[in-house]
Request: fold
Amino acid sequence: MTPETRMDMPAAEFRRTARETAAWIADYLEDPGRFPVFPGIAPGALASQLPAEAPRAGEPIEAILADFERLIVPALTHWNHPRFFAYFSVSASGPGVLAEMLAAALNVNGMLWKSAPAATELEQVTLAWLRDALAFPRDWFGIIYDTASISTMHAIAAARERADPDFRRKGASGRLTMYTSAHSHSSVEKGAIALGVGQDNVRLIPVDEAFRMRADALASAIERDLAEGRRPFCVVATIGTTSTSSIDPVPAIAAIARRHGLWLHVDAAYGGPAAIVPELRGLFDGVELADSLVVNPHKWLFTPIDCSVLYTAHPDILRRAFSLSAEYLKTAEDAQAINYMDYGVQLGRRFRALKLWFVLRYFGRDGLAAMICTHVRWAADLAALIDAHPDFQVSAPHPFSLVCFRHKSSDERNRRLLDAVNATGQAFLSHTVLRGQFVLRLAIGNIHTTWQDVRATWDLIQSLC
Ligand code: PLP
Reply:
């Protein structure tokens, strides 16, 4: 194609700008801590600086990149910052970023095997590698969705399909009931809302003193619902809850699920990657009894967002829940190949397996395990420092890399402390409420974090309190 007929950016301009952009990315990732982790701006700060309309005529790429640096970057919360300890971190590791660049350039749509053979097959192979690295059952089938919320929604849909095959055609009967702990992620209820199960039909089972689902309360809730003529169909247990990283008693929950024919889904979105560490496998007792499990490489496996993996022992049921064969999507290979569009709501799919493949190969199983192990150790070391302080207390067990703690005084003081820490731009924490008390959360998991960052943040917290 001659330059005159080319509609896209000229190749020479692309090559030059790509080199500059790669250099910018390398500088950024070398020291993401040079930006304030939270920009300290108010809602609307960026929008008010941008024109109300898209430009009529195209603009030079230099002008766009200059505005990216001048306007966009300073208005970001920097998830790559080594002292980003809020929520659960997401790491833009070098190999993950490179794979994302390549996936964007290839721009394939993995809806069918035929539409992207390598994307489909790499997803199968990479998810088998991950499954084995995490010591999950070898017959589990894996599929990548964007987020754990969507993975869990698909698991609930499969559970519903097994319990009520007519639901798909006839819609809700209002009798299906599901169970999860009062500490499970909101995505479980959202999945029930989206699938027409209804929020009123989700039972939030109370937790014990360590914020774990009470198996006895689960059993009683199921008995009560059965007595009222309801149809219990699914239970969602969590390994690594969002508030405290607590671990539900999966073996006991699995036994109850089996007794009553419930689908057991395990939300290991955050905690799951820790199964790569042989010494931590004990935290995953009972997962082999699950019907499905979600683990997010984009949370604690150094893979850029988005990448969430759903494993299931029953791919046939998941497929039954979603496959529809439109004539224009039929291919000659349908009988021999996986068409991932059959296993979910979405048709088009990004080539997400590429970044997970890059990450697994670049760091290796041992490298990933070593990083996760180190984070768990730092969390324990930090908890020991907090416990040794006369005015602070650790508020929950810390089996993984999240430490929940509070100043022993009032909620108000803890709230002010959190705001003060985050206002410095030097570190970013989040909070939760446990037993009615405001608690600070410090989650370690970012690939850029060092022990010095954890220690300095603890010093900052003490100095501001
Ligand atoms: N499950 C757990 C335990 C989580 O902590 C989170 C988010 O932090 C989610 C699910 C939702 O994850 P996603 O943002 O991938 O939907």
Notes: The first strand starts at residue 141 and ends at 145. DSSP finds 14 helices and eleven strands in the chain. The pocket of pyridoxal-5'-phosphate is lined by residues 87-88, 147-149, 185, 187, 238, 240-242, 267, 269-270, 296, 308 (CB under 6 Å). The mean pLDDT is 95.
